[in-house]
């Protein structure tokens, strides 16, 4: 059933929907699993990845559907809401369907952005558990990550206080770590700008090695990136051992393996490989697994969750973070390649609101009322803004994946505006569906579900944009021109020197290219909307992640620790002491 989303808040819809969540026995039957393949964990059990994959290893995969978007307004375009609405719509058509989305970070949840559970009648339940830690994966990542920093600081302290002979008696070899060249910092799952730059080890020689350090938010950890791309437990274990923690005074990397902490880190992480089962408001299973950044990492749920979903469901829906120039490009050239996955359809989400912004509409500012151009019919702005949509549509087509454009419905959309978008998309040779899932749930997503099912019958000719043999600078040039629409790439001397070093070292030959740039524009400049012309992409640095095997060319600055705003969500969150229910989250 659908609830009146115009009158009820998300938490109220969630509260009603949660009354009908399945029991473990019902879920086992619904998913055609064995009972020991679900690991009970309160309202949200985990799927035993190893057991299910072993039993279903010879089963054919279902249809693989990815959800991306046009360049968003700062308010977002509703990819998660659309993913959940599509799942609900497909279920209404009687097919076995499920999906996978990212786990939200406590930083945004307790700050301004809020949780990432969709909304209206296309939301994820149970919302409180989803928003407040779920089954502990992020906590395990924090413990494993910070253990590496404990090992590093302790080793530096002991090397400072003992001779080589004394170290040898303790079974240690001097690593000669450079305190001015430490790659890692600590992590916490809140937006705490006061921890971006810190000094640790203040006190005596027993109080640790004194040095400058830093904190990042938990989801920026390389361990989170590794969880998203690991194919199985052995792959996870190997990647954890290759994480670069620091460099020695010769400039050589010092890894978690060198610190002999990689095994213990994997022990903390061992349960994180099992995705957690949540549900859409209409009861369809949705796996929640991993929550990596969308700039320095792939920004989507895990390869493991998608491998599971393709075995468990006839239609599996997965979501990519940000727009098609970032999230889809990494899905296309990194996630699908690493996972050996063959996508069938990509759903490109657009809103009339965003099209108007790209057509020259006024700035959209979070927390302020929308200008009248966005709440009144304006066909001229919509038509001009469709240039951005068509650019992203062209990108999807280059991958060989069949595209379906979804206009995510708002009450301010007019029939003429919707029909104009459909006409423009049809002329470009693609399907377009209007979906009203926020208001009507699965019933409102039937047009979208039908378009996706029809598109799945077309042959997908999937191919990556570049071969792994292509040198880093050529890859970046290709992405900049073919995906962003740049005229070329300008490298800073420092970035070019690093790129040449990586290109000449066979160790980095199979590293993925993980571009870092703003999500608010096709270009590196968030102020440039629509489809910018006559610009070049500046690369100022290249970050390296040894365990994840990422080389990250940076087209702008990046902050791994966001800040908390002046009116954060935690001011409104509380607990009913009689019932234990949490209020104010949504």
Automatic annotation (TrEMBL):
Please tell me whether the keyword Metal-binding is annotated for this protein. no
Q: Which superkingdom heads the taxonomic lineage of this protein's source?
A: Bacteria
The record's catalysed reaction(s) read: (6S)-5,6,7,8-tetrahydrofolate + formate + ATP = (6R)-10-formyltetrahydrofolate + ADP + phosphate
The keyword ATP-binding is annotated on this UniProt entry = yes
- Which Pfam families does UniProt cross-reference here? FTHFS
Record-listed ATP binding positions: 73-80
Query: Quick one: which pathway?
Result: One-carbon metabolism; tetrahydrofolate interconversion
Q: What is its EC number?
A: 6.3.4.3
What biological process terms from GO does the record include? tetrahydrofolate interconversion
GO MF, any single term: formate-tetrahydrofolate ligase activity
Q: Which SUPFAM superfamilies match?
A: P-loop containing nucleoside triphosphate hydrolases (SSF52540)
Q: Which UniProt keywords apply?
A: ATP-binding, Ligase, Nucleotide-binding, One-carbon metabolism
Question: Which PROSITE patterns has this protein been placed in?
Answer: FTHFS_2
- Family assignment? Belongs to the formate--tetrahydrofolate ligase family.
- Protein name per its UniProtKB record: Formate--tetrahydrofolate ligase
Q: Which organism is it from?
A: Desulfosporosinus acididurans
* Taxonomic classification: Bacteria, Bacillati, Bacillota, Clostridia, Eubacteriales
């Amino acid at each position: 059933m659908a609830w009146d989303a115009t009158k009820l808040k998300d938490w109220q819809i969630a509260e009603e929907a949660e009354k009908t969540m399945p029991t473990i026995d019902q879920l086992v039957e619904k998913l055609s699993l064995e009972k020991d393949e679900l690991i009970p964990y309160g309202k949200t059990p985990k799927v035993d990845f190893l057991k299910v994959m072993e039993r279903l290893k010879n089963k054919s995969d279902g249809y693989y559907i990815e959800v991306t978007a046009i360049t968003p307004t700062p308010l977002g375009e509703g990819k998660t809401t659309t993913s959940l609405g599509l799942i609900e719509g497909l279920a209404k058509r009687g097919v076995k369907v499920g999906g996978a989305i990212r786990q939200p970070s406590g930083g945004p949840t307790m700050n301004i952005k809020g949780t990432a559970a969709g909304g209206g009648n296309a939301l994820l339940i149970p919302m409180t558990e989803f928003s407040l830690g779920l089954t502990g994966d992020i906590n395990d990542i924090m413990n494993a990550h910070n253990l590496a920093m404990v090992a590093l600081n302790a080793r530096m302290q002991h090397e400072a206080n003992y001779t080589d002979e004394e170290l040898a008696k303790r079974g240690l070899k001097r690593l000669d770590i450079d305190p001015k060249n430490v790659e890692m910092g600590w992590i916490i799952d809140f937006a705490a700008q006061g921890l971006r730059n810190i000094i640790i080890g203040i006190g005596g020689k027993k109080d640790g090695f004194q040095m400058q350090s830093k904190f990042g938010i938990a989801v920026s950890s390389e361990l989170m990136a590794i969880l998203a791309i690991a194919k199985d437990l052995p792959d996870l274990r190997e990647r954890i051992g290759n994480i670069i923690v620091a460099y020695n005074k010769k400039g050589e990397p010092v890894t978690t393996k060198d610190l002999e902490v990689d095994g213990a880190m994997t022990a903390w992480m061992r349960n994180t490989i099992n995705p957690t089962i949540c549900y859409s408001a209409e009861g369809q299973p949705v796996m929640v697994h991993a929550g990596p950044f969308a700039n320095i990492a792939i920004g989507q749920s895990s390869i493991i969750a998608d491998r599971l979903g393709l075995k468990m469901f006839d239609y599996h829906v997965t979501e990519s973070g940000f727009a098609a120039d970032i999230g889809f490009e990494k899905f296309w050239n990194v996630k699908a390649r690493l996972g050996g996955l063959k996508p069938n359809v990509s759903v490109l989400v657009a809103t009339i609101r965003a099209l108007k912004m790209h057509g020259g509409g006024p700035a959209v500012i979070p927390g302020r009322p929308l200008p009248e151009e966005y709440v009144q019919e304006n066909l001229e702005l919509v038509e001009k803004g469709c240039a951005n949509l068509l650019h992203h549509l062209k990108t999807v087509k280059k991958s060989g994946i069949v595209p379906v454009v979804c206009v995510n419905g708002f009450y301010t959309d007019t029939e003429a505006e919707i029909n104009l978008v459909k006409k423009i998309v049809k002329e470009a040779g693609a399907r377009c569906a209007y979906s009203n899932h926020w208001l009507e749930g699965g019933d409102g997503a039937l047009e979208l579900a039908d378009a996706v099912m029809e598109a799945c019958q077309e042959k997908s000719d999937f191919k990556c944009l570049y071969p792994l043999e292509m040198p880093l600078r050529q890859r970046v040039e290709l992405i900049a021109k073919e995906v962003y629409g740049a005229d070329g790439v300008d490298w800073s001397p420092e970035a070019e020197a690093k790129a040449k070093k990586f290109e000449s070292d066979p160790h980095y030959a199979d590293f993925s290219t993980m571009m870092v740039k703003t999500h608010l524009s096709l270009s590196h400049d968030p102020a440039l909307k629509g489809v910018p012309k006559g610009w070049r992409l500046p690369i100022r640095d290249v970050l390296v992640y040894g365990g994840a095997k990422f080389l990250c060319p940076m087209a702008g600055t990046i902050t791994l620790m966001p800040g908390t705003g002046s009116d954060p969500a935690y001011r409104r969150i509380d607990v009913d002491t009689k019932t234990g229910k949490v209020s104010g989250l949504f």
